[in-house]
C-alpha cells in the first residue's frame, strides 16, 4: 500500500510525521506523494483541509486520516500518543472507509460562458468586495429571496460544525447528503426581507446565487479565498464525489461534537 503524510509544518508535527513515515516504511509500505492510497495528515483540521485539496483529483482512490498535534479536531481525531496503534492498524489493511458528502461550487462568468468548478470539504462563503452584498437566491430553479447583508455561507454536513456553526446554523450528521445555507448578518426591515433561518437542502436541490448589481465577489472554498470578477452566477449543490476517511476505531460524530463543544 502507498501512503503520504502531510504536516502542519511546526516542529511537533514534523517530528511526528518523520516518526510515522519511518514506522510505516518498516512495515514495507511505500511512500508515494503522487498516488497515495492513504494520506495521513498531522497537525489540525486545517492540515486535513490542505491535504483534501492537494489530493482532490483522486478522491475515489485515496482515504484520509488525521492526527492532531493541538486540540481535538473534527477531521484530526488521533492523538500523538496513539500513533504506534495507528501505524499497526494502517499496515494491517484493508481498512474500513467512511464517506462524507462534499459541496460542489460552480462559478459562471459574464463573458464567454466560462466557468470554474470547486469542491469544498467544509464550506464556501460569498461576500462583496465593495459595499453591501446583494444577491438573488434561487432554490431548485425558483426565485426564493433577494438577500442583502454581509454574505452567505454554504456548508457540508461535516463543515456544519465550523464557520456555519458560528453563523447559527444547525449541526448536520455527515451521513446526510445535504448542504446548508446560512446567512451572514442579513438586512431585515420594512423594505428588505430574507427568511432569516438556515436552510438545509437535499442532494437533488441546487442553490443558485445571481448578482443584482456589483458582479465582483470574494469567494472562499474552505481555507482558500479568491476574488472573482464579472460573476454571472454561483451554483451550489451536493457533489457527486465524496471524501473517504479511513476508520480504525469507532469515534461517533455526536461524541466528537460533545467532546469539542460541550465537555471532554
Ligand atoms: P484555522 O486553522 O484558523 O481554523 C479555524 C478553526 O476551525 C480551527 O479551530 C479548526 O479546528 C476549526 N475547524 C475547521 N474545520 C472544522 C470542522 N469541520 N468542524 C469544526 N471545527 C473546524 O483556519 P483554517 O485552517 O484556514 O481553516 C479554515 C476554516 O476556518 C474554514 O473552513 C472555516 O470553517 C473556518 N472559519 C471559521 C470562522 C468562524 O467560525 N467565524 C471564520 C472563518 C473561517
From TrEMBL:
SUPFAM superfamilies per the UniProt record, alphabetical: NAD kinase/diacylglycerol kinase-like (SSF111331)
Catalytic reaction annotation: NAD(+) + ATP = ADP + NADP(+) + H(+)
Required cofactor(s): a divalent metal cation
Subcellular location: Cytoplasm
Keywords: ATP-binding, Cytoplasm, Kinase, NAD, NADP, Nucleotide-binding, Transferase
Pfam families, A to Z: NAD_kinase, NAD_kinase_C
Top-level EC class: transferase
Domain of life: Bacteria
The keyword Repeat is annotated on this UniProt entry: no
Active site, UniProt feature: 45 (proton acceptor)
Keyword Transferase: yes
GO molecular function: NAD+ kinase activity
The EC number(s) this enzyme carries: 2.7.1.23
Residue positions binding NAD(+): 45-46, 122-123, 148, 150, 185
InterPro entries xrefs: ATP-NAD_kinase_N, ATP-NAD_kinase_PpnK-typ_C, NAD/diacylglycerol_kinase_sf, NADK
Protein family membership: Belongs to the NAD kinase family.
Role noted for this protein: Involved in the regulation of the intracellular balance of NAD and NADP, and is a key enzyme in the biosynthesis of NADP. Catalyzes specifically the phosphorylation on 2'-hydroxyl of the adenosine moiety of NAD to yield NADP.
Protein name per Swiss-Prot or TrEMBL: NAD kinase
Organism for this UniProt entry: Cytobacillus purgationiresistens
Phylogenetic classification of the source organism: Bacteria, Bacillati, Bacillota, Bacilli, Bacillales
Protein encoded by which gene: nadK
Amino acid at each position: 500500500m502507498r501512503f503520504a503524510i502531510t504536516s502542519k509544518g511546526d516542529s511537533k508535527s514534523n517530528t511526528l510525521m518523520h516518526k510515522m513515515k519511518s514506522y510505516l516504511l518498516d512495515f514495507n509500505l511505500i511512500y508515494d506523494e503522487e498516488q497515495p492510497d492513504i494520506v495521513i495528515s498531522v497537525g489540525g483540521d486545517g492540515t486535513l483541509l490542505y491535504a483534501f485539496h492537494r489530493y482532490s483529483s483522486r478522491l475515489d482512490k485515496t482515504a484520509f486520516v488525521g492526527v492532531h498535534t493541538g486540540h481535538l479536531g473534527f477531521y484530526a481525531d488521533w492523538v500523538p500518543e496513539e500513533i504506534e496503534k495507528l501505524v499497526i492498524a494502517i499496515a494491517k489493511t484493508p481498512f474500513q472507509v467512511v464517506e462524507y458528502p462534499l459541496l460542489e461550487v460552480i462559478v459562471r462568468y459574464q463573458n464567454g460562458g466560462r466557468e470554474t468548478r470547486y469542491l469544498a470539504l467544509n464550506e464556501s462563503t460569498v461576500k462583496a468586495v465593495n459595499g453591501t452584498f446583494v444577491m438573488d437566491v434561487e432554490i431548485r430553479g425558483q426565485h426564493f429571496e433577494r438577500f442583502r447583508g454581509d454574505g452567505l455561507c454554504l456548508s457540508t454536513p461535516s463543515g456544519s460544525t465550523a464557520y456555519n456553526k458560528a453563523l447559527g446554523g444547525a449541526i448536520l450528521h455527515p451521513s446526510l447528503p445535504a448542504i446548508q445555507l446560512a446567512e451572514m448578518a442579513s438586512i431585515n426591515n420594512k423594505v428588505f426581507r430574507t427568511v432569516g433561518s438556515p436552510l438545509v437542502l437535499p442532494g437533488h436541490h441546487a442553490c443558485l446565487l445571481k448578482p443584482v448589481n456589483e458582479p465582483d465577489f470574494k469567494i472562499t472554498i474552505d481555507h482558500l479565498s479568491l476574488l472573482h470578477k464579472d460573476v454571472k452566477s454561483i451554483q451550489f449543490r451536493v457533489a457527486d464525489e465524496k471524501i473517504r476517511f479511513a476508520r480504525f476505531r469507532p469515534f461517533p460524530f455526536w461524541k466528537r461534537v460533545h467532546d469539542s463543544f460541550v465537555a471532554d
